[in-house]
Design goal:
- The chain is α/β, with parallel strands linked by helices.
- Helices cover about 45% and strands about 15% of the residues.
- The protein has a 7-stranded mixed sheet with strand order 2-12-9-8-7-3-4, sandwiched between helices. Strands 1-16 form a two-stranded parallel ribbon. It has a two-stranded antiparallel ribbon with strand order 5-6.
- Helix 14 crosses helix 18.
Length: about 450
């Protein structure tokens, strides 16, 4: 038998050889560094995920009950309509604006179930790009790290408005108003509904009124990002104040909602001889990607037209949304007993974070009484902006600075810490690390 001739194939360079490596996600990079650290004292304050006093994920009783109810019903897994689950859409707009809100009763709200907050923002960005061409979106400085990516990806131009005052570690209201005033008429102003990420600094009700006055005068369009309703203060109505106030003023607004934080849960539910992963291991409704985009308009006809276009955008991006998490939300909000339980649990979670804030403040005052630490108590929600500068708090490719290398405290390079990852027993340790960084770096 003749020997088979060998064929030499020379590989040609990939046609995608010019694609550059994208930079790593800064928050996930912090988490990876934390995992590699073997110190017993280490703290991961980088990721905004709720933890118990033992720094373990919390299983919400209301989510457990909702999923047990769903299993008993033996509901199917058919595709949802593009706009999402009807029961969820009703529940989410009622939660946002209140079930008695005239805009809801009159059908003036276009509601699209989407892929958590990110997906909702992305659909909204695509809508702005298509139907408000050339309009610039104004984003707070600083803001959640993904906001800029979302609008850039949608081809929507953005600029920043001043928000954080480094001297007071509070709101720069004057700078914020000046920049919104300077924005071209009809601009989109992206606002955090509550628990501003990353600063934890929210406008007061009186300050919200000034912002709304200015947006009205300039004919701007408000786009709210509501990721922490109920999780900031523990009160769903209180945390929805800003978007509700704007709607009561007669303003047309767009609102992205996320349920990743306020219905977070993770567990394994026994089902016969197997284990059903409920909510996703370690991330709860983070993994379910449940959210909504709401557009409140002047009349029902406009809302119907806008929803038709939002559906068209969603169809091209992801076709239709997931059902499991939507049913969880509908169960939790649509049943009075379940809703009461959910509110009780949110109040408990928010209360734990408030307690940690107070403990950290008390320890900071003990160690460094000559400095004003009241910003820790004035900030709200999961995060605290420490006021540390990059040299004091940064995580960098070549290594880490004082907070990480000396104290094994992992945080984002802008000085933000997640108090959800702090326990009362670790408050004194964190205070030591912060004071040392302020004094010596």
């Amino acid at each position: 038998m003749a020997a088979r001739a060998s064929v030499s194939i020379q590989a040609s360079p990939s046609r995608l050889a010019g694609v550059e490596m994208a930079p790593p996600d800064p928050i996930l990079g912090v988490t990876e560094a934390f995992k590699r650290d073997t110190a017993d004292s280490k703290l991961n304050l980088g990721v905004g995920a709720y933890r118990t006093e033992e720094l373990q994920p919390y299983v919400l009783e209301v989510v457990q009950k909702a999923e047990e109810n769903m299993l008993r019903k033996k509901e199917n897994k058919e595709y949802l309509p593009i706009e999402g689950l009807a029961a969820f859409r009703q529940a989410t707009v009622d939660l946002l604006l209140g079930s008695g809100n005239p805009a809801v009763k009159e059908g003036r709200v276009a509601v699209l179930q989407s892929l958590s907050g990110t997906g909702s923002l992305r659909v909204g960005a695509a809508f702005i790009g298509k139907f408000m061409p050339g309009t610039t979106v104004y984003i707070s400085n600083p803001t959640w790290g993904n906001h800029k990516n979302i609008f850039t990806d949608a081809g929507v131009p953005w600029k920043e408005y001043r928000y954080f005052d480094k001297k007071t570690v509070g709101l720069d209201l004057q700078g914020m108003l000046e920049d919104i005033q300077s924005a071209p008429e009809g601009s989109v102003i992206l606002l955090h509904g509550c628990a501003h990420n990353p600063t934890g600094v929210d406008p007061t009700k009186e300050e919200w009124a000034q912002v709304a006055d200015l947006i009205t005068r300039k004919n701007h369009f408000a786009f709210f990002d509501v990721a922490y309703q109920g999780f900031a203060s523990g009160d769903l109505d209180e945390d929805a104040y800003a978007p509700r106030y704007f709607v009561e003023r007669g303003l047309e607004v767009m609102v992205a909602q996320s349920y990743s934080k306020n219905l977070a849960s993770d567990r394994l539910l026994p089902l016969g001889s197997c284990l059903l992963a409920v909510g996703g291991l370690g991330k709860g409704l983070y993994a379910e990607r449940i959210g909504a985009l709401n557009v409140v308009l002047a009349d029902k006809a406009a809302a119907d037209r806008v929803l038709s276009q939002l559906k068209r955008i969603a169809r091209a991006l992801y076709s239709n949304p997931p059902v499991h998490g939507a049913r969880i939300v509908a169960e939790c909000v649509g049943n009075e007993e379940m809703f009461s339980l959910w509110k009780k649990e949110m109040d408990m979670m928010a209360g734990r974070i408030k307690g940690v804030r107070q403990a950290l403040y008390d320890e900071l005052v003990k160690l460094h009484p000559e400095k004003d630490w009241t910003f820790v108590l004035k900030q709200i929600g999961m995060f605290s902006f420490t006021g540390l500068n990059p040299a004091q708090a940064s995580f960098v490719a070549a290594g880490v600075e004082n907070m990480t290398s000396k104290w094994h405290v992992y945080m984002t390079k802008d000085g933000r810490i997640s108090l959800a990852g702090l326990s009362l027993s670790k408050a004194a340790y964190l205070a030591e690390a912060i004071v040392d960084s302020f004094r010596n770096h």
